[in-house]
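New to this. Comment on this protein:
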Amino acid sequence: MHRLLSTLLLLNASSALAAAVHSWTDEHGIRHFSDRPSALHSTQAQPLPSAPSPGPSQQRRDNTAQRAAAEQRRFNDVLRRDAFREEQARQQRCRTLEEQLAMLRDRPRLRLADAAGSPRPLDEAEREVLIRDTRERLRISCPR
């Protein structure tokens, strides 16, 4: 039903657009234009010219819009790719932090390299500080 009504409206509109323009001059010398002939004066029917086809300027606008849309798609693709890579890196950092936390919790006798590069045992206070810091970095970087 909706399609039928739309089709009838379009056909009616197209026939109105294809109609002629009627013109006449009245007794005072004023020229009149109408879509209907005058009942009082003789009229001349002039067909309406058809709308011009889109010329080069319209094509340039269309090409510009197409180029802009293509550029936007490329930009969006780069953003998605970068977001995907950042998410992968974040997940890797989270796995590393979780492994470090497990190692700090499960191994009380850890050794840490000093400034000279020599290994030294990690005391309990240092271990607790590292555990607390690692948990905090996990909380900030890797929300669950």
Observations:
- The first strand starts at residue 20 and ends at 25.
- The mean pLDDT is 82.
- The CA atoms of residues 89 and 127 lie 26 Å apart.
